[in-house]
Amino acid sequence: MIREAIVTTRSLEGEPHIAPMGATVIEGGYLLQPFRPSRTLENLLRTSIAVVNFTDDIRIFASCVVGRRYNVDVKKATYLDCPRLADALSHDEMTVERVEDDPQRPKFFCKTYHSEGHNRFEGMNRAKAAVLEAAVLVSRLGLLPDEKVDQEMAYLAIAVEKTAGPAELEAWGWVLDAVAEHRSRRAS
């Protein structure tokens, strides 16, 4: 099973980094597979620690994918010297146990060092899931034909129109802008 999460890491100098990632559940922890090149990959190789953050703020996922500035507060994790999302619903502090190299996506087998809950989960929202799926589409704009993107976005728009609150509408707008900007850059 893959859980969509925000993975936080830090550089050797202590600079926090935030990235959306599918964390694959494995016995005792998670398998993380950041793409090459990425700051998450470099930080994991250098520090061997990370935090898997669970949040329902879809703007964090969308802002990371579309490259939009969105203020996200971090604080030190409970036990590991690694940042975590200050407003996470929960977080799992991870230590890298083993790395399998790969030219595209190395595999980091991580053990859960500490888990902690912080905020109440308020339930599912179809618009959040739709924005998450749209953000995944944006991350693949260079790989997918426009017709496929348009078809998927039209379907996802139904859930956004029916169930979105202000946060989901804001993130949806960012995703729509990213698609338009991609096509504009490609046309010029």
From TrEMBL:
Sorted alphabetically, which Gene3D superfamilies does this protein's record hold? Electron Transport, Fmn-binding Protein, Chain A, Hypothetical membrane protein ta0354_69_121
Q: Which Pfam families match?
A: DUF447_C, DUF447_N
Any idea what this protein is called?
DUF447 family protein
Q: Which residues form the DUF447 domain?
A: 4-118, 125-176
InterPro entries, per this entry? DUF447_C, DUF447_N, Split_barrel_FMN-bd
Which source organism? Ancylobacter aquaticus
